[in-house]
Design brief:
The chain has 472 residues and is an alpha/beta fold. Among the domains are: 186 residues, NAD(P)-binding Rossmann-like Domain (Rossmann fold), CATH 3.40.50.720; 143 residues, N-(1-d-carboxylethyl)-l-norvaline Dehydrogenase, domain 2 (Orthogonal Bundle). It has 20 helices and 14 strands. It has an eight-stranded mixed β-sheet with strand order 9-8-7-10-11-12-13-14, sandwiched between helices. It has a two-stranded antiparallel ribbon with strand order 1-4. A two-stranded antiparallel sheet has the order 2-3. Helix 8 links the parallel strand 11 and strand 12. Helix 11 runs antiparallel to helix 12. The longest helix is centred in the last third of the chain and has 23 residues. The N terminus is likely disordered.
Length: 472
């Protein structure tokens, strides 16, 4: 049965990232005047992010540090420079409060969080009873089943579109998936069908949970059944090997450019989700209203979604992290130790950042849940299929033996080859193997050109001597 109070590795990775972000934001300044623009330049080459003063309680939760005024920096009107320690801020806030004239309570801001009645979901169209919402999950694998479980726990009807009649019978009669998470009971509002038309006909949302390399064929078969106005939410990660396309390119090609679409990524092992362990993911979409709806749809005491408009960064991060996980698994399988593992994963995240920015994604996205968050979970988590592939390669098994023994897809194997082709096709410059040594090294190992030990030793001996830089 579910352990709703437990914290899994995915949750730990998510919480650690949020903690780092809050710590970074501890460098704050005190603004006592009218609203200022998001960035105020103190010189031609120096910009400092500013924001309004916080309450005393909020300030106490932040590191006691601030911004020191540079000698020639003029202070904007209504703005005070100096060390904004907690005590200073509290004194200034108390003085300002005493001096301010009494005024009526301001009405709630339009963006303020309001209490949503139990059993209701607040969507862009207004409040909807959860039990009146219909979500089709296209693909009844491990992650599709897990996401159906998230929705079902909120009372939303989630219908899995699967390929086997025995799966339909087991889910509808006994609320268990005989092939994935078979020891765990699914919510009563989770159903299954063999007929995509039945699932899609009244769907408010369609979740695409088919593995990347099979997604195009699957979508083309059902494209005529999917309404133009129904949002499609992609759960697939990776790069299509035949075209080098991401899911953000495959879906419009199959369903049309006007199809509403969003992408979910982050540290989210299916087993931990089904067990009710705390999980946080990223929802990426250029449609903010759709992203808001999905965050409302997902949010519960054990599941949380955050938003980014950087679809490209999220997609690249979701592909690269699987390849880094194979490398991390090989490091462990070879017995190279914790030092080597930490260095490998760190440098792998550097390659992820470099590729994301080269393909017009945002560098900051790499340091979120869909980037290093998902990478931490996949590289260090025992549930990671990609890590297991690498571990077994490091122990001496052949790739064919490993893949033939697996019941689920390890996307990183196909993605490794596609990534090197993508870099060669879309990224400029020379000696790309020196800019992306881990990505190219893993591809060479999977191709049988070198052994895992040769590949990982080469990183130590042939890696260029240079400054370690992480420009933000």
């Amino acid at each position: 049965m579910a352990r709703s109070g437990s914290l899994g590795l995915a949750a730990i990775a998510s919480l650690a990232l949020l903690s780092l972000v809050d710590t970074a934001r501890g460098m704050t300044a005190v603004h006592a005047g009218p609203p200022l623009p998001p960035f105020v330049s103190s010189s031609a080459t120096h910009s400092i992010p500013l924001r309004p003063a916080r309450s005393s309680a909020a300030i106490r939760s932040l590191p006691r540090c601030g911004i020191v005024r540079m000698a020639d920096d003029p202070a904007p009107a209504g703005f005070e420079w100096g060390f904004s320690t907690g005590d200073d801020v509290e004194q200034k806030a108390a003085s300002a409060k005493a001096a301010a004239p009494a005024k009526e309570a301001a009405p709630a801001k339009s963006g303020a969080v309001s209490k949503v009645p139990e059993g209701m979901i607040k969507l862009s169209g207004g409040l909807r009873p959860a039990n009146e919402l219909n979500v089709a999950v296209f693909g009844g694998g491990s992650f599709g089943t897990a996401m159906a479980c998230v929705l079902g726990r909120k009372g939303i009807k989630a219908t899995l579109v699967v390929r086997r009649a025995e799966v339909v019978e087991q889910i509808n009669a006994n609320h268990t998936n005989p092939y994935y998470q078979s020891d765990l009971l699914l919510p009563e509002s989770v159903y299954a069908t063999l007929d995509p038309q039945e699932a899609f006909a009244n769907a408010d949302f369609i979740f695409h949970a088919v593995p990347m390399q099979y997604s195009r064929a699957a979508l083309e078969k059902v494209s005529h059944l999917i309404r133009d106005d129904v949002p499609v939410v992609s759960l697939a990660k990776g790069i299509e090997t035949s075209t080098l396309c991401l899911m953000s390119e495959v879906i419009p090609q199959c369903l049309g450019e006007d199809q509403p679409v969003a992408f979910v990524s982050g540290p989210s092992f299916a087993k931990e989700i089904v067990q009710g362990m705390a999980t946080a993911v990223t929802v990426a979409s250029t449609d903010r209203a759709l992203a808001n709806d999905l965050m409302a749809l997902f949010t519960s005491s054990s599941f949380r979604a955050l938003y980014t408009p950087d679809v490209q960064g999220v997609e690249i991060g979701g592909a690269v992290k699987n390849v880094i996980a194979i490398a991390a698994g090989m490091s462990e399988g070879l017995g190279l130790g914790t030092n080597a593992m930490a260095a490998l994963v760190t440098r792998g995240c550097g390659e992820m950042r470099r590729l994301v920015t080269a393909l017009d994604g945002e560098s900051s996205t790499v340091f979120g849940l869909s980037g290093v968050g998902d990478t931490f979970g996949t590289c260090f988590g025992p549930l990671s299929r990609n890590r297991q592939v690498g571990y077994r390669l490091g122990k001496g098994e052949s790739l064919d033996e490993i893949l033939n023994s697996m019941s689920e897809v390890a996307e990183g194997v196909a993605t490794a080859q596609a990534l090197t082709q993508l870099v060669n096709a879309r990224v400029g410059g020379f000696r790309k193997d020196l800019k992306y040594p881990i990505l190219f090294g893993v591809a060479s190992i999977l191709n049988g050109e070198i052994t895992p030990r040769e590949g990982l030793v080469a990183l130590m001996e042939k890696y260029p001597l240079r400054l370690e830089t992480f420009p933000f």
